[in-house]
Amino acid sequence: MPNLYLTEQGAVLRKTGDRLIVEKDGEVLLDVQCHKIEAVLIFGNVQFTTQAVKELFEHGIEMALLTKNGRLVGQITSPFTKNIELRIAQFERHRDEDFKLEFSLSLVAGKVRNALQVLKTFACNHAETDLTEEIQGLESSLRTLENGKIAAEGLNGTEGNAARAYFAGFGKMVRNGFGFEGRKKRPPTDPVNALLSLGYTMIFNEISSLLDGLGFDPYLGYYHKPEYGRASLASDLMEEFRAPIVDRLTLRLVNNRMLAEKDFYNNPKGEGIYLTREALKRYFAEYEEFIGREFTHPDTKEKTSFRKCFRIQAERLASAIKGEKKYLPFRLEK
Fold first, then answer.
1. CATH superfamily of the 4-76 domain
2. Average pLDDT value for the chain
3. What is the mean pLDDT of residues 235-262?
């Protein structure tokens, strides 16, 4: 099911029967049944009634509050479907250093493998772009990870080397006058980084809400250390999806001229570059199409989508925590 994105400043989300309506100045902008919604994302100054929130809770629908620029402020979650047995096992595994290292190695290797696949696919389709050095850099990092002899303190360094090689290659893949001189965040300093930051926030929010709904504690991660106010487990699981979803979507929007420089603006109250409101609406439509597009899962060989893969990976993590199977990261194919 798709997410509901509310960006019209000054609008109000209300409930009527088992439906949600969005109104502004007495005009109904949207009328939708609750069972057709996966989650509600509210951007900026959009109000909502307690009755609407209660209806969301009764349907197990998560709500996320974000700034107009797409920075996650917080989430409102239903108390249902809390699996205490899973949470107990999750906390017990956090004391298992061998498990944390094994999971982290698998996770980072999966992230690097998917990033490598993005570079290789682009190089195959664009012979004029030389990505040889960057591909070799990622392959070297992947060999180190797959060797399995790396210590926990060396894992971040290996991931960092892979990230530098990857984003050097990513910059070569950006077309149509958009510049990209490396990953820059908090705040993003150029349109490409703005798209990357927004996309990472989107999948982070989806994964965090999913983990919470399945009974995990999203704040207790294994690779990302617990940090006040951060859903570290969601940060863990989103790693392997960064390149397959957000990076490829960003390239699609930029290289296919679906977004232009005029669709971005400088933050008048500080630093940072962000999408305009109208461009943000177009972005959400493309994001939903991309994340909901069906493809054949590389392992199960069944029809799936990226949004469904979030759940598959969460279920794989639950099995790993319970000691049933080793964690198998998502694998991007051509």
1. CRISPR-associated endonuclease Cas1, N-terminal domain (3.100.10.20)
2. 85
3. 93
Q: Give the model's pLDDT for residue 321.
A: 92
Cβ-based burial of 140 (10 A; exposed 0-12, middle 13-18, buried ≥19): middle
Whether pLDDT at 125 is above 60: yes
User: Which tens digits make up the pLDDT trace of 4-22?
Assistant: 778 777 888 888 877 888 8
Query: Which segments of the chain belong to CATH 3.100.10.20?
Result: 4-76
pLDDT (average), residues 242-268: 90
82 pLDDT higher than 70: no
CATH 1.20.120.920 maps onto the chain at 84-321
279-329 residue pLDDT tens? 888 898 899 889 888 888 888 888 888 888 888 999 899 999 988 889 999
- Provide the CATH number for the domain formed by 84-321 in this structure: 1.20.120.920
Sign of CA dihedral 200, 219, 1, 327: positive
HEC states along the chain? Answer: CCCEEECCCCCEEEEECCEEEEEECCEEEEEEEHHHCCEEEEECCCEECHHHHHHHHHCCCEEEEECCCCCEEEEECCCCCCCHHHHHHHHHHHCCHHHHHHHHHHHHHHHHHHHHHHHHHHHHHCCCCCCHHHHHHHHHHHHHHHHCCCCHHHHHHHHHHHHHHHHHHHHHHCCCCCCCCCCCCCCCCCHHHHHHHHHHHHHHHHHHHHHHHHCCCCCCCCCCCCECCECHHHHHHHHHHHHHHHHHHHHHHHHCCCCCHHHEEECCCCCCEEECHHHHHHHHHHHHHHHHCCEECCCCCCEECHHHHHHHHHHHHHHHHCCCCCCCCCCCCC
